Each structure stands twice: as C-alpha cells, then as structure tokens.
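Saturday, quiet lab. Running sequence design on the structure tokens for the scaffold JK sent over.
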C-alpha cells in the first residue's frame, strides 16, 4: 500500500508547471514611451529652471523663498515674462532723458532741507519714468513685478526704498533711513534711465 503522502507527492510531480507569462510587445512599448516622456519632462524642467535663474538672477531666489515652492515661483516668473512681453517698452528720447536727469538732480538737492519730501518725489519720479518707458500704471506690487523682468538685479532696491517710504508715512523712519531710500530709488532710476540708450551696454532679450 502506497502511503498517502507519497501518493500526493507523486501526483504533484506529474502536474505540468504553468509557464511564466512574458510581457507583450505592446506593454513593453508603452513602458518605454512612458520612461522617455518622463525623462523628457525632467530635462525640460531643468532647462526651464536654468533659463529662469539666468534671466532673473537674485529675483529668482527671492521669488522661490517668498512662495516657498519652486514650481509656483517659476510659474509666477513665467507669468510676469508673458505679461511684460505684451508691453511696448521703449527707450527714452534724448529730451526725456535730460529732463529726468535734471529732475533727479533737483530732487537730490532738495533732500538737504526736506528729506521726506525728496523721498516722496523720488518715488514719483521712478513711477513717471517707468510710465514713459512703457510700463503701465498700477499698484506698487504690480509695478515691482513688472520691472523685475528686465531689471531683476535692482528691483529689490525699489522694494527697499518703498518699504522705507511706507515706514516714513507712519513716522517710523529717521533721516538716515530716508537717505538710504534715496540711494535705493536712484539705483532703479539710473537703470531705467540708461537701459536701451545708445551708450548703454545691451540688455538681455526678453
């Protein structure tokens, strides 16, 4: 009599083994396509990041820090670029350039006797200069965002000057603060004044 255990083992040995199913060519092709698309998206993202960082410089890092999200920051910078691309930014005429230079010199001289008034006038001169160059009139945050596209290295000076002006409106700024505000305003003012002028170095294309 064959033991039951041996019989069961013998029957199991005679059962045919199921062959392993291999993936069909269609499935393999789909996997390859997905992998290629993923790799392409990574490369495109890296290239976009490099281009935006090169274009915006410190403004790129500032935006990433402000939004605390690289993807949102890059989307914001692209939105700014697209918006400014619709503007008709133009160089100053020689007459306008001379007029703005003279007005700035007069405002700097005014600072000695009236620092608060000089800072307010500096803010107005910068806004007027932006408008003549082709930037639309808007609130401060929008103006700063717009000007950051073509003047990313100096837009933080504009923000610093505006912050001091706001503090002064609340009576929280001293004369040295106001002096710093004038320096910050002048940084953007000069950049707007000479940008695209015949004797200025060429700017990066938008």
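Result came back. Writing it out in full:
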């Amino acid at each position: 009599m064959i033991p039951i255990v041996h019989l069961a083992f013998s029957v199991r040995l005679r059962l045919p083994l199921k062959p392993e199913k291999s993936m069909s060519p269609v499935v393999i092709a789909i996997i390859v396509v997905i992998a290629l698309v993923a790799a392409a998206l990574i490369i495109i993202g890296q290239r976009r990041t490099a281009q935006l960082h090169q274009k915006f410089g410190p403004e790129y890092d500032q935006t990433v820090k402000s939004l605390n999200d690289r993807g949102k920051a890059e989307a914001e910078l692209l939105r700014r670029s697209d918006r400014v691309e619709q503007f008709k930014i133009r160089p100053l005429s020689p007459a306008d350039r001379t007029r703005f230079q003279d007005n700035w010199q007069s405002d700097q001289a005014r600072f000695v006797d009236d620092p608060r008034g000089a800072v307010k006038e500096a803010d107005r001169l910068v806004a007027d200069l932006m408008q003549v160059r082709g930037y639309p009139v808007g609130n401060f945050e929008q103006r700063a965002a717009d000007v950051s596209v073509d003047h990313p290295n100096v837009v933080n000076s504009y923000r610093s000057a505006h912050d001091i002006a706001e503090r002064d409106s609340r009576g929280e700024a001293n004369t040295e603060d106001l002096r710093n505000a004038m320096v910050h305003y002048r940084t953007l003012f000069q950049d707007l004044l000479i940008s695209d002028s015949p004797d200025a170095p060429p700017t990066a294309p938008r």
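Notes for JK: Confidence is low (pLDDT under 50) at residues 4-13, 198-206. The two ends are 93 Å apart (CA to CA). Ask whether to fix the surface positions before the next round.
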